[in-house]
Amino acid sequence: MNIKEQIGVLNNPFKLPCGYEVSNRIAKAAMTEHLADSTGLPNERHFTLYKRWAKSGASFLVTGNVMVDKGSLEGIGNVVLDYDQSTQRFKIWADTVKENGGQLWMQIGHAGGLSISENSLSPSGIQHIGRVRTFPKPNPMTQKDIKDVIQRFVHAASVAKECGFAGIEIHSAHQFLLNQFLSPLTNTRTDEWGGSLKNRMRLLLEIVKAVRKAVGTGYPIAVKLNSSDGFNHSGGWTEDESVQVCSALEKGGVDFLEISGGSYEATPMLGPQDIENFAERREAFFLEYAKNVRTLAPSIPIMLTAGMRSAEVMADIIESGIVQVIGMGRPLAGMPDAPKKLLSGELDSIPRFYGESLPVMEQLRWFQKQMELMANGHEPELNMTQDLIDVEKTKWNEVYTRNPEELPWFGLDIPVEVEDFLQQLNKGDLMVITGCGVGDTVKIVHTKGFKNVIGTDISSVAIEKAQKRFPGITFKVASTQEVGSKENIHDVNVFDWLNLHQISTDRLDTYLAGLTSIAKNLCLVWIYDSNEVESNKSYTHEGNIYYHNPVIVKKELKKKGLSIKKEFTFMFSTFFNNVRREHVAVGQIYAKQ
Ligand SMILES: Cc1cc2nc3c(=O)[nH]c(=O)nc-3n(C[C@H](O)[C@H](O)[C@H](O)COP(=O)(O)O)c2cc1C
After folding, report:
1. Which class for 241: exposed (0-12), middle (13-18), buried (19 or more C-beta within 10 A)?
2. What is the CATH number of domain 403-591?
3. Which of 124, 306, 441, 545 has the most other CB atoms within 10 Å of its CB?
4. Global confidence as pTM
């Protein structure tokens, strides 16, 4: 096929079994955005990001996984569509895409045993202890829990339809709950939901049936399914079984299947992560599997995602009749109009980005960082590479040696959530900023017109340094020393302290006593590595228990009469000991009343 023919193939519309017309053959695959705050609602940042993608040229856009249960989050910042959720923002989300020429589909999912939440649910209560991440031990699901999950999918799908989403995709891949039911590694039940393949696929089929009943025959329902677990060892979810599920889904009236594979532990969907060869990597990671699906499920449309980059390979695959739609994820995070460039012939292939060479968690963060930049109205930063990091290192050292005042607050502006909150306050209010980068954070708040700003830290050295750098602002030590203990046991340099980002239970008591006596509004910005937040890690050192979990901090503060007014997450990078690291910061704003 010459390039003109390829473009013709990719631009050729086709109809799904329900009658929905797919305007061209490239769609945006789901990528979890991690942009929501603790309400779980889509916000301005989602709207800005998706407005951009609405013009991407993709025939439709699938959202990142929207969780059907607020108790089963896959990560901090998930969008949640639970029963008590207001639906207005979902409508704005779908409308924003429509008004800008796109079609928005909602991916609905439940993380099951891969949830970061305590008391999560999974088929058999098997804890996921992994090489990459460890999750809290889930509870095995009762019959009632299973019925409840079915209803949750129905609820989310119905709301999606009501709010103007063009279709829904049920997430049954990547070892999330529905995949956990399918796999004999995670489903060891002996009732009608476990054991034989027929039993293990029952939940997925029941959900499809119930959702179809709720949304009617003309509304598109897709399922994202794993070809296999991606593990080398035996006993897991295999292609043979997966193909049989595809056949059952075809009979069950699903409009298309999106094919994927793997989980956090084994990530065939992201391809091999080796820096040397990633640019020349083969495309279409799951094509062989798609061919197998065709033998047992001859008519169901297939969306093939993972690794697709060139118009030539895409057009060949579509022409073969095996696959009807090409899904693209990472290309749209780095190049938001990638589909348009392929469909118009401006590019014949989308380049692989540096982020694709990184190990899984770093890779996800690299791409999420690109989405976050766009969500904040900026361009992706494709040059976030090792080279850039090295250049930054030199620049950073120079600046810091010359004048510490120029040191940026981790290179980031104050997060938009803090700003929003500040706008609501009376400018004369007393604010205490604590928990991270006290000097720079307080300086930012101060320059925004807040006069009575006091910055605190548990380290007297940190406070001395901050005071020297910003003499016009008041800083106080709120530590064991300040509230009468013999010594300031946490007497460390502010920058070292940032690396420790920890507070012990006994210090928390005295620390808070100091803080709450001077603060009306208290803004805590806790910094954690996402791994730490998500693993609920705590450890003991010299008799103190250290927590890396803002949920526990929240509990402790509640006992002190401080209630949370706002909570949010954001990504930022720190640069310490010559190493740049991406972090998740968790901001919590508390007020006494
Ligand atoms: C940052 C990121 C987030 C993702 N989130 C989801 C998700 O929420 N749901 C899902 O089914 N797949 C998710 N994926 C997988 C993608 O949908 C896709 O299968 C994968 O990136 C491979 O396709 P690509 O080579 O076109 O990127 C995610 C991938 C990335 C990189």
Report:
1. middle
2. 3.40.50.150
3. 306
4. 0.70
pLDDT tens per residue, range 135-144: 778 999 999 9
Place of tokens 């806790």: 526
32 lines ligand 1 (CB under 6 A): yes
- What is the CB neighbour count within 10 angstroms for residue 557? 21
Q: Are 470 and 443 in contact (CB under 8 A)?
A: yes
pLDDT digits 0-9 by tens, 508-529:
554 555 555 555 566 665 544 4
**Which stretches of the chain drop beneath a pLDDT of 70?**
38, 129-134, 229-235, 262-284, 359, 361-362, 384-452, 456-462, 477-557, 559-560, 566-593
With 0-12 / 13-18 / 19 or more C-beta atoms within 10 angstroms meaning exposed / middle / buried, residue 24 is buried
Atom of ligand 1 nearest to the CA of 270: 22
Q: Where are the domains of the chain?
A: 3-353, 403-591
Contact between 575 and 396 under an 8 Å Cβ cutoff? The reply is yes
Phi, psi torsion values for 143, nearest 5 degrees: -55, -40
Q: Looking up tokens 């006994």, which residue turns up?
A: 506
Ligand 1 centre to CA of 306 (Å) is 8
pLDDT at 286: 79
Ligand 1 center–CA 35 separation, angstroms: 15
Phi, psi of 403 (to 5 degrees): -160, 105
* Domain covering 3-353, topology: TIM Barrel (3.20.20)
Q: What percent of the chain is modeled with pLDDT above 90?
A: 42
For residue 101, give both structure tokens: 């020429």
261 lines ligand 1 (CB under 6 A): no
Whole-angstrom Cα distance, residue 181 to residue 568? 32
Which backbone phi and psi does 255 adopt, to 5 degrees? -80, -35
For residue 328, the ligand 1 atom closest to its alpha carbon is: 26
